[in-house]
User: Fold these one by one.
Assistant:
Number 1:
Amino acid sequence: MTIAMFKNSINNYIIIACLALPCAACNVPALTQRAANKATPAGYNNDTPADTANTARVQWKQFFTDPYLAVLIDSALNSNQELNITLREIEISQAEIQARKGEYLPFLSARAGAGIEKSPRYTNIGALEESTEIVPDKERPEPLPDYQAGLYATWEIDIWHKLRNAKKAAVLRYLATVEGKNFMVTNLIAEIANSYYELLALDNQLAIVKQNIEIQNNAFKIVKMQKDAARVTELAVRRFEAQVLNTKSIQYDIEQKITETENKLNFLLGRYPRPIPRNMQGFEAMVPDVVHAGLPSQLLANRPDIRQAEQDLAAAKLDVAVAKARFYPSFGISASVGYRAFNPSYLLKTPESLLYSLTGDLTAPLINRNAIKATYYTASAKQLQAVYNYERVILNAYVEVANQLAKISNLGKSYGLKSQQVQALSRSVNISNALFQSTRADYMEVLLTQRDALEARFELIETKKSQMNALVNVYHALGGGW
């Protein structure tokens, strides 16, 4: 018999057996499934013209040109513990694929054994053995030894693609873990870049505070001289002294924030605390690059988290198919071939000691299918969860990009106005000091002007930091960096 003839005979046997089964074996509960909505708006807002150019396609090394920042990101991609944990998850998913693949292939095992058996004399088996001569004129050994060696094979024929679909689902989940790793890379790069720009902003704020302390100390000395000349009271001296002390306390608050931000970066880099090399100059002169947001539909291809949700959705659909196939009959084949004898010298004697078997079995659930139904309903519910999660991820991606694009635009306008405010207040400080020395201005005007100027410069630095963070965040939101 050829292999093709054997397969045909098996298929005919399965069809006849399935027709003979009760309808309940093939009656699958009906479920309502839902397709995912992938539709996205034509643009992120009405003011932005549609453009197919997309910043997300730029690699992070070309997007972040600061050499100190590039070194930090590169080190984190090699040493970050959370990223390395995710890489091990990918290895686990690869192993799961091999396990699922092996389930629909034949299982072949070798077995060898030895034993001894004594049957009671007054039983049908004992009576037959007593009257049987295995070798003429030679009594049967009692008790009877048993030696055997052979090959055994089992194979479940995957009629309804239950096992193949389980393997495909494992492949899709492996691809989802890869996309999850890519999304983590994007998040890690964005977090490091934002922390780096925060560190630069703190450095500039610290420099501003030190400059103000020097200015306030000079003003404090002048006030004390004027007090000695009876031109101001002791109240003015104490107010100026309190202002100097308050500014010095701000200095130590900023130094603490610098330490915490450096340690946060060191943690992301997977190392113990140490100073972070950085370019402390030129932060205020940084200008965010022009961002090409592209089309919202491009998010489906560029965002790793969207692709991850898409792979999870496809795997969930296959899980429903696998659960559904459990209602149908399954067909298995088992075979064995080997040798068995009561004496090792007869073990390889052919055909007397030869044994072989070939069995086919068909099984189908008939009664008490609650466990199968529960698995089926669970798989269906998880498929609906995957649909809603996929739609949520797409919506979240669109909202993130729209928010960051608006933020970049508004921060640019705000920074221009704050720059003008700082220039005006800086001139006011010089004017107030000169008027105070000529007794044409009250000391409170000097204090308030210095405080306003300090706050305005702080806000200018914060706005610049927000600009750079928005640039990083829109690059992240578009799906770049991985």
Note: The first helix runs from residue 3 to 20.
Number 2:
Amino acid sequence: MNNMWTRKHLLKSLLALGLLPLSSFAQSKDEAQKEEVLPKKVDVIVIGSGAAGMSAAIAARDKGARTVVLEKMPIIGGNTLISSGVVNAPDEKNQKLQGIEDSNEWFYKQTLAAGHDKADPVLVKVLTDRSYQTIQWLESIGVKFKKGVFQVYGGLWPRGHYPSVSHGRGYVAALSEQCRAKDIPILTNVQVVGLIKEGSRVIGVEARFKNQLKKFYADKAVIIASGGFSANKALYTKLDPRLEGMTFTGASSATGEMIGIAEKAGAAVSDMEYIQCNLGPDVGYSHRSGYHLDVTRHVLVNIHGKRFVAEDGARDYLRDAVLQQPNKIVYSIVDKNGFQNLSSLFQQAGILGEIEGEHFENNDLAELAKKMKVPPENLVNTIKEYNQAVETKKDPYGREVWMLTQKIETPPFYAARVRMAVHYTMGGIVINENAQVLTKEREPIKGLYAAGEVTTGVHGSNRVGGNGLLDAFVFGRIAGENAAVGL
């Protein structure tokens, strides 16, 4: 039964991305009957099938715990599936080959500072100290990374590892294959609506399945790994009125109800007002691509065709700069080399975006500007000035020297019209370094753990680009390990 469940939902995730034919879902009568059988009791219940959830399930199973994953959506993967896929980690071998100096200590200091010293230093230390071993673990389960490292948008340092399989698809495939191999069921269309407590201990969950309320019990623990609330427009607008009218970049499943459910069970919730924005599609358009992922290969210009910011800054700094521009609309610009350096999914989104009218391509910068409806002379001069900055290593907007390496000079040239969109929520359930959920008195709730974007304390008021998935993998594994042994 378990192997059938995980195989079925891995295939469904790949199908949703257009990577498998419909025939991959042919089911036998026996398989259909097996789907009605759900485990009533296990050692560990994991809520959510993204990076944090599946990492937790695998870690718990490796410690000998009978584990099940409950996913409210019909496909697995959550935000992980459509994420950029970048994971930060100091990597001495690869970074030395690129002339980059780095360390866990520098990573720690940068992460704390980027979050304006509002993160829990203990959690940040765990995150950064376990970063490279997380890359090694991912490689051990079949994830492949491209050679070298780079600085992702908002990443602050060239330590981003990029998977060979575009975006988060490779992670979801590798993690779900591990679940299949380790006999961990992943049950979809199961919506958790409450936590079951016996005294002060969490002993299970109540969930809606096939329009019926079911109770699932765990002998050891429940792990919440259900993601944040970046798709909950009513909530994020209430928390930060500046976000009124913004769209969001992630999965529609990120509605955050488990935060309230955990709070009702006694969990402390904090920092809900810390909400991160990223460049996304203009309102009314659907293709998120943009061309800003690799900071060395793009510039941002406003509707006047002029640069206005150091593109290698922190994400909250970039957000504020974009929101100050006319109409709050900007364009990310790359040349042929920058476009070819994008993942295949970003390239595909760019092509589809051109059809919709939010992405533009031309062999001549002046003609590109006309398509963009910005002053041609301004855009031509802006790119000329930027290329001069690459030559002199002096940027009037303050880009760091190592971010001035790639000229924008090889046609065709590309532009994407983007504006800020809600991307990530830093607030949520309070945990400690063992991924235990804490009460308002900061005491662990027995039998309850949490990991990933549903938690708070790891990023402070601003998340470093490339730290979101790292957080999910690191604390997902910690949660699973500790839940299995009943810490």
Note: Residues 1-37 have pLDDT under 50 and may be disordered.
Number 3:
Amino acid sequence: MLEGAAEPQTVRLSEILGALSHALDLTEGQPVGHCVRATWIGFHVGRHMGLPELQLWELYHTVMLKDLGCSSNAARICELYLSDDLSFKRDFKTVSDSLPKVLGFVFSHTGLKAGLAERFRAVLNILQNGGAIVDELIQTRCQRGAEIARQLRFPGSVCDAIHALDEHWNGGGRPDRLAGPAIPLYARVALLAQVVDVFHTAAGPAAAIAEVRERSGTWFDPQVVACFERASDEPGFWETLASDDVEAAVFALAPRSPILVDEDYLDDVARAFAQIIDAKSPFTSGHSERVAVYADMIAAELGYTPERRRWLKRAALLHDVGKLGVSNAILDKNGKLDDAEWRDMRNHASLSETILTRVAAFHEMARIGGGHHERLDGKGYPRGLRGDEIALETRIVSVADVFDALTADRPYRKAMPVEQAVEIMRREVDTAFDADCFGALERAIAKLDTELKPFSKAA
């Protein structure tokens, strides 16, 4: 249905993507609601620029989805800077072009937990090759963000703006060193909105205004700055931005959408965010997609209807969305996690539930995101649910999730052969895993093996 339609079951595009943007905030290390607040700022700037409704809709979603590519460079940041990617990304948004600030950032965020020699090598590499390193990180992020926006059916104007988010008015930005009017207008507004929210959240309106004025003509288009200043003078602008009601206010502003939000589009949204989740770590590449396939195979064996299987695939695609809030220093660690790291890792299930609960269309899926690490014997997390307290769909995804985890590479071990993985899981039937779900997995694997043998022989 179109956004703004009168039917009671209308699914609003702005609310789906706005709620899921909280997952992007997590992986950028930003306070919850950053993308939504930036949308409030950017939309008001667009109004003062006199943009017509369709362009306001494009600007609205450019700002809301500006961080679509944010997970794609997280592992590389940890590798290059020997750093926690979440705090790195959070603090990087406050750094200007000032050399002392850049140097201060490098020294305060590189290899703080590494040995002296390792830290020295990392800092030296960054000082010698910093330009190329930043080029690589931003190009990866911008390119991936634009690709995902296209998958979500946004027009080229939105995709191009997301790609150009980090361009600066004076030509000193990235990834393409665009300058002045060559930078897409929506990108110019989105970058300003991002900086305003970061500084306003940290230190209030005066700090945000001062930062914008200081960067006018270098980072920011002076015309966009002037429109921001007029917007910020409106009654209630700052009060709403700082209030708990800002999300509702942003959703109320959403122009009518030309994108039809139907069942196919909900599939596209789930698939797109699964790619964002899996891009966080090289060891989870394709994980969510595979879990969705295995969950669907199990559900088919258990006699689920096509409609319910479709719903379950979406839930499986999004079950790990909370991992966007876990540092790659933990996700990619080659060794045992300490107690604090393990708490952060376990928290991803609760984060998944929190994020999915925000999306009306995905609300029922939230229990799967929150419960896919529960065990029948009550020794799982986060709630320690037992037996029938764990819904059947959650048990299906749990079996699919563990099977893929065992048969895929991890930082601390190579992928197991299917037979070994199945044997390990069989030992925990009725303690960790539901017997019917595990039996369905075994039958599905056997069928798959039979069907694929001709292909292996032909090869």
Note: Residues 116-151 form the longest helix (36 residues).
Number 4:
Amino acid sequence: MQLGLDSAILVGVILLVVGLAFVIPSFAPYRKPMPIVAFLLGISSGFPLTLLIGTMAYWLSKVGVDKSAIGFAIGLTTPYTLKFLWAPLVDKLPIPILTRVFGQRRGWLFFIQALLVIAIWQLGASNPTNGNLAPFAICAIIVAFLSATQDIVIDAYRIEILTDAELPHGTAMNQFGYRTGNLIAGVGTIALASPEGLGLGWAAAYGFTALAVLPAVIGALFAGPGRFHPAHARGGEHGFGAWLNETVISPFREFLGRHGAVLILLFVLIYKVGDAMGQGMLNPMIVELGFTDTEFVAINKGVGFVALIIGSACGAPFIAWLGMGRALLISGLLMMFSNLLFAVLASVGHSPLMLAIAVGTENFTSGIGLTVFVTYLSGLSSLAYTATQFALLSSFAAVGRTWLAAPGGYVAEQLGWVGFWLFTVVIAVPGMLLLWMLWRRGFVVQTVRQPSTEDEGHEVADPEAGQAIPAVPRST
């Protein structure tokens, strides 16, 4: 029921955003073709992980698999944090025939999606039981690897088909698409499989859900090959050593050769630590404060979901109004100070009104921050090595959201809930100070495309002047 409501809310917000695109100039890029393609790419990107984690856990529970065995599913997220290790192949290794016909990005996309459909069909047909989990586990691992690889391709392709003016809006539309894919793989697959729904069984349900790759196929056929130049896919004609250098070493060398590269990576790592730490401990606090399940669903999943997607939609105009540097700073401050409302909730105790205010505010600011931050990571990625560099940056960000935020439970035990939420504000301060330093030294510029040593027409930072200067086009 709640998932159906979420679906209606998501569709409503998307229609509202498209409507605003006709009356508010800063929303206008939402109705352009490429941001809509980014929405289609997001659908195909969003469904596999939900199919693996949420839907799969539900399926295993329904067929009586032990909880200890179900717990292994969290390990399926590992390929998503390690995807930068094989991302260089996506940048430089051509797929026979497909790359020549469709281009590097679409060739890889269609190849991986064909394998992903087969793997999901096999996963659905694996018939898991307590005594027969091996085929299921093998298929799940394969799906996780292919899904992470699909994300590498889609992220790179999204960045390359969007102009600078469209990148924030395309990023927000991609987030909408991702959540649509989540809903398809969640409520859609269960409705297909359940006897209370269409009753098709899990094998057929997983098979039909695998068709969620089609939106990306349609979008890619419409959008064309993107701005990835065929020369970027070369490698091998000068020997394995030269190919290895260009494929694996050059993307990291290019990024680390930029002014302030180490500080930028540190910023990416710690920027959202306070926000992530708070989100990880919110549900335990809600339980401890005595909120009922009904209150939890209505406020945390209802009000919170609405606020999150509205905030995500506002993220792109936020960048258009303020520029990237100011948008990062202000959205970071908004996320940081929104946690103070949870400190107030912790001191007040059981108050549905205060919970609604705190959850709504926090999710709205997080939605803005998510769009701004992903746009920033996209703009950091050189068009010469988009797949590798975005995979590296997003993996760094994932480490910050998970491992650095992991001690949240210990902090809550030691400081209590009021002290914990005050701590999440304090722990976010270093990220804000580092951002201020990067901005003042010219390592973060106001345009969405950030300083790069490779891309024609991009900006490179002049650290002494503290501002960006036009890049000199590189020869090809």
Note: Confidence is low (pLDDT under 50) at residues 456-476.
